[in-house]
UniProtKB/TrEMBL annotation:
Coiled coil regions, renumbered to chain: none
Keywords: Cytoplasm, Isomerase, Rotamase
Subcellular location: Cytoplasm
Originating species: Absidia repens
PANTHER family xref list: SERINE/THREONINE-PROTEIN PHOSPHATASE 2A REGULATORY SUBUNIT B, SERINE_THREONINE-PROTEIN PHOSPHATASE 2A ACTIVATOR 2
GO cellular component, one term: nucleus
Signal as UniProt keyword: no
GO biological processes: mitotic spindle organization; response to osmotic stress
Protein name: Serine/threonine-protein phosphatase 2A activator
Length: 365
C-alpha cells in the first residue's frame, strides 16, 4: 500500500457537502457508531479485553502524561490565555512520534498516522483545542483500525481504556497549559472542549435502572459515579471550572438535555448533533485532513495553503465586474470565532488559588 501524508482538502461548503456524501465520511461515522454500540451499558471499570496493541497505545499516552509533568507552564500569571509551554510539549510529541510507535505501527505508515495523532492535542500556534482536534484522535484510531493494529474485538477497550486515557491527558493539558476553547461558542453549549465523551457516555448509561438524565443536577450522584461514566465525569469537570453555580446558566444545552426521560433519546440526539454541529460545520472540517487511509478525492489539495492566520479559509469579495451578485470568490465569511481569543474557564478557576476573593468571571461563563 502507498501511504500519503494527510492534507486539508475542504475549503467551501460545496467541498463539505461532497465530503458528507463520501466513503471517508461513512467510514468515520460508522466507526464512531460502532464504538458507541460497543460500550452500551458498560462501565469504565468493566473487565474488557485489552490486547497487546491497546496496551502499547496506553503506554504511549502514559509517557505523554509524564512529559507534561516535565514541561511546566511558563510563568504567566497575568494571562488567562494559552500558555506557550504547550508548544514545547507539542514539539516533543512531534519529534518523538516514530520512537513512540515504532513497535506498534508499520514503518511505512508512521508519517501518515503521525499527522492525526499530533494534531489531536490542539493547535500549536493558537494554543487552543476543540472538537476538530478530538476528531483527529478518532481519525488516528480509525487509521489503526484500517492497518489492523486495532480490531473490532478491541472496540470496548478503545473507548473505555484508550479514549478515556486520552480525555484524561487532554484534561491535564487543559489545566496545565490553559488551552483556549477553539471557538467563541465552546462546543455549542456542551463542554468547552469535547463532544464525544457525551456521546459515548450517554451510551454507557443507555438502560441504567437508577441514573436518569436529570441526575446530572444531583452532585452526590455525579461525584459517586463520575469514575464509571464519561457523561457524569464531564458534568463534574464543568462544575469544577465554571464560575457560576448552575448548569442552567453556563451550560443551558446540557440543562435542556437533562429533561429527557431516557438515555436512549439522549444518545440518539448526541449522534445527530455530532453529525450536524461537528462533521457538518465548515470552520471545523476545514482543518480535517485526508491521506490514503482516510481517503477523500474531493475538494482541493491546496486547502492548507489558503488558511488565514486564524486557521480558516475566508471569503473575499471578487473584484470581477462580472460578479453581478457580489458573491464571495471562495470559502466563507468570517465565523464568529475568528479574531476573538477565548480565555480558558480553567484559567479563571485556577485563579482561586491566587485570589482570596475567588475567580474573576469571564464573558463566556
Amino acid at each position: 500500500m502507498s501511504f500519503k501524508v494527510p492534507v486539508k482538502r475542504i475549503i467551501t461548503k460545496e467541498h463539505l457537502d461532497d465530503f458528507t456524501n463520501s466513503t471517508a465520511y461513512d467510514d468515520y461515522t460508522n466507526y464512531i457508531l460502532r464504538l458507541n454500540d460497543a460500550v452500551k451499558n458498560t462501565k469504565i471499570s468493566a473487565d474488557v479485553n485489552v490486547s497487546e496493541n491497546v496496551e502499547g497505545i496506553l503506554k504511549v499516552l502514559t509517557t505523554l502524561s509524564k512529559w507534561v509533568d516535565e514541561i511546566p507552564p511558563t510563568e504567566n500569571a497575568k494571562s488567562r490565555f494559552g500558555n506557550p509551554a504547550f508548544r514545547d510539549f507539542y514539539d516533543k510529541v512531534e519529534k518523538n512520534f516514530d520512537d513512540l510507535f515504532c513497535d506498534i505501527l508499520p514503518e511505512a505508515a508512521l508519517k501518515e498516522v503521525s499527522v492525526y495523532f499530533i494534531e489531536s492535542f490542539g493547535n500549536r500556534r493558537r494554543i487552543d483545542y476543540g472538537t476538530g482536534h478530538e476528531a483527529n484522535f478518532m481519525a488516528y484510531l480509525l487509521c489503526l483500525e484500517k492497518l489492523n493494529v486495532l480490531t473490532k474485538e478491541d472496540d470496548q477497550a478503545v473507548v473505555l481504556r484508550i479514549f478515556v486515557a486520552y480525555i484524561s491527558l487532554m484534561r491535564k493539558l487543559q489545566f496545565e497549559y490553559w488551552l483556549e476553547p477553539a471557538g467563541s461558542h465552546g462546543v455549542w453549549g456542551l463542554d468547552d472542549y469535547h463532544f464525544l465523551p457525551f456521546l459515548f457516555g450517554s451510551s454507557q448509561l443507555f438502560d441504567h435502572k437508577y441514573i436518569r438524565p436529570k441526575s446530572i443536577h444531583d452532585q452526590e450522584v455525579v461525584d459517586e459515579f463520575s469514575k464509571d461514566y464519561m457523561y457524569l465525569a464531564c458534568i463534574q469537570f464543568i462544575n469544577a471550572v465554571k464560575t457560576t453555580a448552575s448548569l442552567r446558566w453556563h451550560s443551558p444545552m446540557l440543562d435542556d438535555i437533562s429533561a429527557c426521560k431516557v438515555w436512549t433519546k439522549v444518545n440518539q440526539g448526541m449522534i445527530k448533533m455530532y453529525k450536524a454541529e461537528v462533521l457538518g460545520k465548515l470552520p471545523i472540517m476545514q482543518h480535517f485532513m485526508f491521506g490514503s487511509l482516510i481517503y477523500f478525492e474531493g475538494g482541493t489539495e491546496q486547502a492548507a495553503d489558503s488558511h488565514d492566520d486564524c486557521g480558516h479559509v475566508h471569503a473575499s469579495p471578487t473584484a470581477s465586474a462580472g460578479n453581478k451578485e457580489g458573491v464571495f470568490a471562495l470559502g466563507q465569511e468570517y465565523p464568529d470565532c475568528c479574531g476573538i481569543p477565548v480565555p480558558s474557564a480553567i484559567a479563571a478557576a485556577g485563579l482561586k488559588n491566587h485570589e482570596k476573593a475567588g475567580p474573576r468571571p469571564i464573558p463566556f461563563d
